[in-house]
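Worked example

This section walks through a single chain of length 297. The input is the sequence exactly as stored; nothing has been trimmed or padded.
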Amino acid sequence: MVLSSPAPQRDPHETKRIMVGLVGRGILESRTPWMHEQEGDAQGLRLLYTLFDFTHNGWDDKDLPQLLDAVQTSGFAGLNITFPFKQAVMPLLDELSEGARAIGAVNTVVFRDGKRIGHNTDVSGFAQGFLDGLPGVALGHVLQLGCGGAGSATAHALLSTIGVQHLSLFDTDAVRVEALRYQLAATYGAERVSIVKDAVQTAGKVDGILNATPIGMAKFPGTPIDVAALQPHHWVAEIIYFPLETPLLAAARALGCRTLTGQGMAVGQAADAFGLFTGQAPDRAGMAESFAAFTAG
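Given that input, the structure is written out below as C-alpha cells.
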C-alpha cells in the first residue's frame, strides 16, 4: 500500500478545511461524498470528502491500520467506515461510544485530541428511514439476511426503536450469526431472536425481509435469497443504496410487495456523522434533497 497525504498549507484567513473520507470496498458509486460536501457548502464549511476504495486501489485488508495512520497524520477530522471494515476497525481505535460498543460495529471514526473515537450512526439512520418509509407494516416476525457490522446495527434497530416482536437471523457464517444472536438475546430477551439455517423456508413464515448483506451491490451481483421465496404480503427492505434499485427490490415490487430502498439509512447515518465530524447540526432534509439530486443526475 502506498499512501502519501502531507498536510496541506493554507492561508490562515481562509475558511478552515475539514477533511473526511469513506473507507470500504466497491464504494466508487457512493453518494456519501456528495451529501457531505453539499451540506458543508450550505453551512459555509470547506469540507473535502475522499473515497478510500480498497478494491479500486488494489489494497489488502491488512493495510487498514496504515491507512488510518496516514489520514490521522494528515489532519483528517474523521472517516466513515463501510463494508467490510465495520468490525475490523474496532481494535485500531482508542475509544468507543456507548452505542458502538453495544452494537459491536463502527461506521464513523472521529479523530480528536490525538485519539480515534468510534461511533455508530447506522442504528438511528436505519430506524428513522424504516419508520418514514414503511409506516404501519406488520412487525410480528422478520427475517434478516446478514449479520455483519451493518446487520448488527439493523438488528438492534428492528428490536428496539422499530419494535419487531421476533427476529430470525440468517448468515452463512455460523460464528458471526451466533455472536449476534447472543448479543441480541442478552439485550432484548432470548425469546425475541433466533437463528435459521434455511432462509427460503423461513421466508414463508414472516411478515418482512431485510437484506443486510452486500449482495445486490454492483460489486456483489445477485440476490441474497431466491426471489421465488417472496410473497405479495411481504415487505422487503434493503440497506444497499448503490444501486438504489437492487434485483431483490425489483422482484419484490413486481409481486406488489411494499419495499424500502437504502436511501433512508444512507441519509440518516450521513447526517449524524456530519454532526460528529463538524460539531454542527446537519440539515437532514437538505441532505435528503442532495441524495435525491445526485440520484436524478
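What to look for: The chain is about 40% helix and 20% strand.
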